[in-house]
Write a structure and sequence with these properties.
The protein has helices at 3-21, 42-53, 96-110, 139-143, 163-166, 172-179, 196-210, 214-223, 275-286, 293-299, 366-390; strands spanning 58-65, 68-75, 91-92, 247-250, 253-256, 272-273, 314-317, 323-330, 334-341, 347-353, 357-358. By secondary structure, the protein is of the alpha+beta class.
């Protein structure tokens, strides 16, 4: 060992002794600051972006909570012009319409025109002639999909080339006639089976007892009072700049299904709306501004324990002791989910114009792919509301 090396060792020992006596120690670089906690909207934003990355055409979303609002749009309005989608764009919301229809039915109850547990057999035109009910069927059973009434969609042609069918407008009366070709037994009554025919029948009930076309009643009792300027029950203008387009494929060819001639005005799936309007509707409903308190309480009540569907609403447990309520709509080309808290203070709605798939008439496996869209939308909306109500 040379003299210089020994001197360095002695200097290092002195420095170590000084640091120990002074209470200091070398700890290396400062640790990185902890990553910020995820924001309430992060998972929803990520899910919407993932939809687009995986081929969806567009997604629009709005979330509202006390003191705040968050709206976003992703993707494009249509695949021809590729104009960017906007948060206020309109879309066919499918079975979200049924929740609005349920309000018009409960207003009949509020006005003393019929009872929730009153039979409808003789109150609805064509009910006992087009259909063969196995016994008395009540308003509540139709609203809760526990009537056993067959879904008329099961009687539609199953030709993979669906295009001739979509050019013809469905009617409530025709829906009952088609359902009448399917079996309906006493054993079916009381069990939950989602069927669009239930709400076709309810639309006829509203129309009959109000002596006005159903679409006019919905406009006057729901759309106009709430100022839902983006909501309509008529045929959509496919040239409108604010309409989100939706697509399927047929033998590999892309088909634009934005013309809603087949479903326009129907009480089970006929509305075209925006996410802001959908949230306004559910906020007003659960804040008690559309039906009486007793009717709202009945609307939230499932016919029996464990059933996930009430009267025009799906139930969902939230992060509080109260239930959360949902409305879910799906076509071949769109998926829409709306979620609201029991008191209406929190609302979230999202619609996705899904990746163009073949219909299940051509490829049965695509039905599961569309279902997955709905599950992912529902999950991300509820996760967002969970984070908001815990913050």
């Amino acid at each position: 060992m040379g003299p210089q090396h020994g001197a360095r060792r002695r200097a290092a020992a002195v420095l170590a002794l000084f640091l120990a006596l002074s209470g200091c120690a070398y700890a290396g670089p400062d640790p990185a600051p902890p990553a910020p906690a995820p924001g309430p909207m992060d998972s929803l934003d990520s899910q919407a972006r993932l939809f687009i990355d995986n081929g969806a055409v567009a997604a629009v979303v709005q979330v509202r909570w006390p003191g705040g609002e968050w709206s976003r749009a992703y993707g494009v309005r249509d695949l021809d012009t590729t104009t960017p989608a906007q948060p206020e764009d309109r879309v066919q919301v499918a079975a979200v319409t049924a929740s609005m229809t349920a309000v018009t039915v409960l207003k009949l109850v509020d006005d003393g025109l019929i009872g929730l547990d009153s039979p409808v057999n003789d109150a609805i035109p064509g009910f006992t002639t087009s259909l063969k009910p196995p016994g008395p069927i009540t308003v509540r059973q139709l609203l809760s999909h526990t009537s056993g009434l067959p879904d008329f969609n099961g009687a539609l042609p199953d030709n993979p080339d669906f295009r001739p069918l979509l050019d013809r407008r469905m009617t409530m009366e025709r829906a009952l006639e088609l359902a009448g070709t399917l079996p309906w037994t006493a054993a079916d009554v009381g069990g939950f089976r989602y069927s669009d025919t239930n709400y076709a029948a309810l639309g006829l009930l509203v129309q009959t007892l109000r002596h006005r076309p159903f679409a006019d009643v919905l406009r006057d009792e729901v759309i106009s009072p709430l100022g839902l300027s983006k909501t309509s029950m008529g045929r959509a203008d496919v040239r409108a700049a604010d309409l989100l387009h939706g697509y399927v494929t047929l033998r590999g060819e892309r088909i634009d299904l934005s013309d809603n001639t087949f479903s326009a005005g129907m009480p089970y799936n006929g509305a075209v709306s925006s996410m802001a309007d959908v949230n306004t509707f559910f906020g007003a409903l659960f804040q008690g501004r559309l039906v009486s308190a007793p009717s709202l309480a009945e609307m939230k009540k499932s016919p029996r324990p464990g059933l996930p569907y009430a009267l025009g609403l799906w139930t969902h447990s939230g992060c509080s002791t109260n239930e959360r309520y949902e409305s879910r709509g799906a076509f071949w080309h769109y998926v829409t989910v709306a979620v609201a808290s029991d008191d209406g203070r929190y609302q979230a709605a999202m619609s996705v114009s899904v990746k163009p798939f073949a219909t299940e008439l051509e490829d049965p496996d695509t039905a599961r792919q569309r279902d997955l869209y709905g599950e992912q939308v529902e999950s991300s909306l509820n996760e967002t509301l969970d984070r908001l109500c815990r913050s």
